[in-house]
């Protein structure tokens, strides 16, 4: 689990930096849209991407869930 926790933290930090929001806002968004489950499920693909691409992918997922 520690590998997952580290990667989830990395994704959260990248998203926070790209979006210019607080850690609390990231946690709220990730919980609301089940992003942590997405990160764990899609680890195989996500870990090959750079931080910006991961943030953009997560942002697209959140926007699609809002529709």
| Average pLDDT over all residues | 94
Report the strand count.
Answer: 0
End-to-end Cα distance, whole Å, is 32 Å
Q: Quaternary state, please? A: single chain
SSE pattern, N- to C-terminal: HHHHH
What profile does the largest beta sheet have? none
How much strand? under 5%
Identify the overall geometry.
Answer: globular
Alpha-beta content class: mainly alpha
> Count the helices. How many?
5
The helical percent reads: over 70%
Radius of gyration: 11 Å
Count up the domains. Answer: 1
Residue ranges: pLDDT <50 for 5 or more in a row?
A: none
Structure description:
The protein is mainly α and 67 residues long. The longest helix has 18 residues, at 2-19. Helix 1 crosses helix 5 (51-66). It has helices at 2-19, 23-32, 35-41, 43-46, 51-66. The protein has one domain (2-66). It is globular, with a radius of gyration of 11 Å. The chain has 5 helices and no strands.
Briefly, what is this?
The protein is mostly helical. The chain has one domain.
Q: What's the topology here?
A:
Elements: H1 2-19, H2 23-32, H3 35-41, H4 43-46, H5 51-66
Helix pairs in contact: 1-2, 1-5
Summary tags:
67 residues; mainly alpha; globular
